[in-house]
Amino acid sequence: MAFEPLLTRNIHREGSESIDAYLASGGYQGLRRVLKEFTPEKFVEEVKTSGLRGRGGAGFPTGMKWGFLPKGREKPRYLCVNADESEPGTFKDRLLIEKDPHLVLEGIIASAYAIECNLAFFYIRGEFHQGCRTFEKAIAEARARGFLGKNILGSGFDLEIIVYRGAGAYICGEETALLESLEGKRGYPRIKPPFPAVVGLYGCPTIINNVETLANVTLIAERGSAWFAGIGRPPKNTGPKLFCISGHVKRPGVYEAPLGIPFLELLNERAGGMLHPSRPLKAAVPGGSSMKILPASKCDVLLDFDSLAAAGTSLGSAGGMVMDTGTCIVGALLNLARFYAHESCGQCTPCREGTGWLVKILSRLERGDGRPEDVGLLADIAFRIEGNTVCPFGEAIAWPVDSYVKAFREEFEDHARRKACPMRAAAGA
Fold it and tell me: Which of 59, 74, 150, 139 shows the shortest CA–CA distance to 104?
């Protein structure tokens, strides 16, 4: 089956963010179909059958997550949209929010109907000024046309959406930290269980879905689960996916492809290949900065949840980062460690203290003060962070450190032995 890009079908059209442009491209037909042909329970089953897995990083099956909601209706249910995208190298949700907000909005409405929720929250990163304005305008347009508010399209279903701007903290992309922030508290992650589907926002059952996930719900509403499940690598890696690619490539950007596209095809055919012909691929992080690095010799992989897990890394947010042979791996890891040390919320000692120590050790290796024992020390600190924190933030730095050291140990040892960065020394810097 030839692949037809749908998540990005509107983004290059003039005025793509307006409801008129969206309706002209067939927008909101999926929602009409859902409200007319499906009960909430049946649409949950439709999403389960599609095989859709969350596009925010964890890859958990979306329909199954919805199915965890308690059967009783003693408390209201909430849908929280995670639009706090802030992983370095990941910028796909922002593209959807700014260029095709109604694609996301339609998925929100259909999802809220499925989980029988009448109030949804759109938690958007504070720095996304344009995205916030665009989405608020889209909400107003949808309400004026009868797609939001009371008795949507005469179905008897009501929904309101509140846009909430975060303060720009990476940790608030973690679902329970997001809930704490929404409740007006410091964005500290919660200990799980209980999971948000049972005890979420204000103690009520809550579903938290990523922006791209909900855009995919729109496609399922429009074309059905069988169509969706026929894309990618069934049965567990289905549907279209947005892949970001940045670093040493000719055409960095966001590319839509079926789950399971070969990484080298994305790199060479979509992104135009390596930026400098004289500098071949050295390494890549296909899933985003918090995932494990792959040396060039292991980059002939398929980009889906299970293939990348088998290769020793993860799909994550699909924020692919490419490094050529001119890259100092120690310097690259130091740059990453500085970000995670700055963004650690400080709740857990291993993360709060460990990220700081990683920066100190990497800094002295990079400036020429490294010690032979530093390489082992880096791996030991990563080991002591991993699995010992409340949220996955600890792994977000432990995994890169462990994998960078394992894949390029000689380069780290060379920094310590020479008391200098070998690349800068060779360049005469």
Answer: 139
CB 216 within 8 A of CB 225: no
* Exposure of 359 in the CB half-sphere (CA atoms within 13 A): 16
Give the single-character DSSP code of 269. Answer: I
Query: In a 3-state reduction of DSSP, which class is residue 40?
Result: helix
Distance CA 246, CA 166 (A): 25
Strand spans (E) along 171-297 = 206-210, 232-233, 237-238, 240-247, 253-258, 261-262, 281-285, 294-295
What is the amino acid identity at position 330? V
Contact 330, 362 (CB under 8 A): yes
Over residues 350-361, the pLDDT tens digits come to 999 999 999 999
CA distance 386 to 393: 9
End-to-end CA, the chain: 53
- Residues 290-316 pLDDT 10s: 999 999 999 999 999 999 999 999 999
Helix (H) or strand (E) holding 165, with range, is strand 160-165
Reported as a single tens digit per residue, the pLDDT across 380-422 is: 999 999 999 999 888 999 999 999 999 999 999 999 999 888 8
- pLDDT at 1 (0 to 100): 65
> Within 10 A of 177 (CB to CB), how many other CB atoms are there?
26
Say how far apart CA 90 and CA 318 lie, in whole Å.
7
β-sheet bridge partners, residue 295: 283
pLDDT of residue 429: 57
